[in-house]
Structures are given as C-alpha cells and as structure tokens.
Amino acid sequence: MRCAVGAGANAVRRLGSFSGTGLGVEVAHRAPVSLEPSCRALGGVRFASLKAVRNRMRSIGSIGKITKAMKMVAAAKLRGTQARQDMSRPFAASVRQFFGMLPAENLSADLKSVASEHKRRLLVVVTSDRGLCGSVNTNVSRLVRHVLPTSGTGTSADGIENAIMVIGDKGRDALQRTSAKFFTTTFRDVFKTPVSFPQTVVIAEEILAQNPDQIIIFYNRFKSAISQLPTQQPLLGLQLLMENASVFDRYEFDSDMDSSQVLVDLFEFEVATQLYGALLENSTSEQAARMSAMDNASTNAAEMLGKLTLQYNRERQAVITTELVEIVAGASALEK
Amino acid sequence: MQRWLRPALNVTRQVARRQWSADAATAATEEARAGATAGEGTNQVTLNFFCPHMVIARNRSVSSVIVPASSGLMGILPNHVPTVAQMRPGVVTIYHEDSKEERYFVSSGFTFVHPDRTDICAVEAVRLEDLDPEEINKALAECEAKLAAASSSGATDAQRAAIAQIGVDVYLAMQGAVSSSR
Q: B79-105 in b/e burial notation, b at 16+ Cβ within 10 A?
C-alpha cells in the first residue's frame, strides 16, 4: 500500500517538476509513459491508484489552462509586434540595400588576406529574455557556435579574434557554458518594452565603441507565424568599409564636412538600423514561436487529459463492479 | 490547419502579398529606369520616406522633394545625380503632382538618391502641422538653460553640454520651421 502511494505520488511530482521547468511540450509526451507502469502495478490497490490518477488529471488540467493562456498572450503580442515590424522593415531594408553594393563574397576573403594584422570580429547575438518559445534561441546559439573556433584560444583558424555581445538572457545562458571567455557585453531586458530606435542606439554605441573589423548579427528572421529562420548578417567594419569605399563612387556625398566623415556617420547609421531591424525581427519571431509552442503544449495536455479521464472512469467502474460482485456473492452465500 | 493559426497566417499572407507587390513595384521602377536610360526621361521622382517606426511614403510618384542636407537645402528633381546626403534637423517638403505640398520635420538621418528612386531614411519625422509652438519654446528654453549650466561648470560636462547643444539646434530648427510655415 505504502509503496503504491509512493509510486503514484512520484508520478505526480515528476509532472509538477516538468511544469516548473516549463517544458510544456515535453510534459505531454513523456508523462503518460511514466504513468502506465505505475498504474498497472497498482491494479490491486484501487483507492490509492484512483487518487493518484485524479491528482494527475487535476495538475494536467491546470497546466493546460496555463499554456492556453500563454498562447493567447503570445498571439496578442504577436499581432502588435508584427504590425510594428511591418512598418519598420522598409527602413532597415533600404539602408541594407545601399550597403548591399559592397561585394559580399569578398568580405571574408578580405578578412583572411589581412589576417596577419590581427583582426577583430564581433558577434552580436540577439536572443529573447524569456524561454518557452520553442527553438528560436537554441537555433541562434547553434549558429554562433559554428562560427566560433573550437580550440581554446580566442582566435579562429584564419587568425581572427572573436568577441561575443549577447542581447537577451537566454542566449547568455546558452553560450555561457561553452564560450564565456569570448563575452564582452551582455544586455538584458531589451525586449521588456517594445523595441525602439533610441534603445537600439544605446546598444549600437556599445558595438561601435569596440571598433571591430567585422560585425555579424545573429537573429531569427520572421518568415511567417510558423516559420522563423535563424540568420547571420555580416556588416563590414569601418576600416574595411573605408578601404572598399570605391564601390560608392557612383554616388556623390553631400556634406559640409569631408566625405570620409559622411562615411563614418553613414556607417554608424547602418549599424544602428541593421541592429534595429534584427531586434524587431527577433522579437516577432519569439512571439510567433511561443505561440506555436504553447499551442502544441495545450493540445498535448488536452489529449493526455482525455486519456487519463478514460482510464480513471474505467478504473472507477471496475471498483464498483468488484464491490457489487462481492456484495452479491456474500448475499448468495448467506442464503444457502 | 489549426484554427488558432488562421488569423496569424492571414496577417502573414497579407504581409507577404504586400511585400510581393512592393517587389513588383521595385521591378516596375527598374523597368522605368531602363526606359529612362534609354533616353525617354521621366518627370517624376519615386519617393520612399521611412522612419524607424513608420512608413510615410512607399514608391510614391511625386514631382519633387526638398531635403535639409547638411550643406544646405537640397532639391531633388527627376534624374538627379546619385547622391548620399546627411540630413540636419529641418523640413522635408514633398511637392505632389497636383501642386499640393506636404511638409515633415525630420531630426536627422540620410537621404539616398538612387538612379531609379529616392530613399529618405529619417530617425524621426513628424508632420509640421503637428508641432506645437509653445511646447517648442518651452523645450528650447529648457535646453538653453541646460547648455548654460553645463558650459559654465567647465570641461567635465562636455558631454552634457554637447547633448544640450544638440537639443538647442533641433529646437531652433523646429522653431524656424514652424514660424516660417505660419
């Protein structure tokens, strides 16, 4: 008896701990597996088993409610961020288009050819502050790990020194374990309020202060509500931009200062706008991913609750039948 | 298809369609450019006017635009030389074909005059009519006071003085723009 209750309580506790870590999807997949054997073992001990199932049903029901509410919240937020992103996409796109004239395939070659001069590469990793949003953060950190050198030193095989700037708690947690030595700055609570340009400028200034030779921004590009694409966007550092300035010869630079100063300002503007675009894309992706993750979790919880209810009712019916049989058998024994 | 996804997907589809149409429009301007280089010459400027949080104009045909470039006001007419212009605080005036004009105050940003279109990327842009002269005067006085305080306390406050100086510049430009429009 004690053993049986223990097993039931254990199952409940496991479920509870899953809900604590918040892996809604996994809860629904794993839990029934752990339940089945414990219940079968409980076959003879009816009441304890029924109680265990009832407890599980209750907790699964409330998890389902929570995930459903989270889905609703994410859907509402997604609508807001998507509308905002829709309004600001062209802004970043038009600046990106201008810098698209730079021969992109030459960039890495350029970096390699001057590798002896000790180049610095800054990886700007945009992730969310909060979890429960599917695999968006994992995908980005995986992409970052591919770029980072596997050896112990900070320089990769082509002689480029790497540094990481992380925006968002989740990316920091994910990368800290393997790549903490590359960290320069981390930002948190960036997505607490809607992404704004002044806020982005603060981060961009931090990037510019490090004066890297190449900047790579990692983020999730929002393709649709069910598809987000982990993306890396390389930007040329100021020095390399100056060396490649001839591609802009078609354009006149209008300024009261010399045109190199315009290029410096333009570079700073580019970093800020591209970062702004990346932040917006990522916050939209985050909400979309959270919405679908939470929807899956709610579906699974509902399915599981249905299975458990069936099991519970069967078992209850069995208890009643057994008791009836016992009474009838007892009565008929007395009659004889 | 799950029911909850539908509204979101619809939005996405709309967005996708809009982007597609934007692409189509770009292609159209591309064709127009091909026509222009062939010697026909267009008499319209294709204007894009963006700021970080909104789109003021996208692929709109206007007769000319005046932007506050840092070296002075710059008028952009059809077939303008490709230019990159840094903007200072000032007024962007858009002249429509029906000789109506639209005026926006921009704080800063860049204007890219491409062969086929003109992109104005402003950090902040508001309609001139939406500016309140009294608020401008108040903010200007505040910034001037800050500037005086920062510059009197010596070199340690150079950064604060610079910030106040920017404020003074912007509000002065704003004041000038508003008073000239009335």
A: ebeebbbbbbbbbbbbbeeeeeebebb
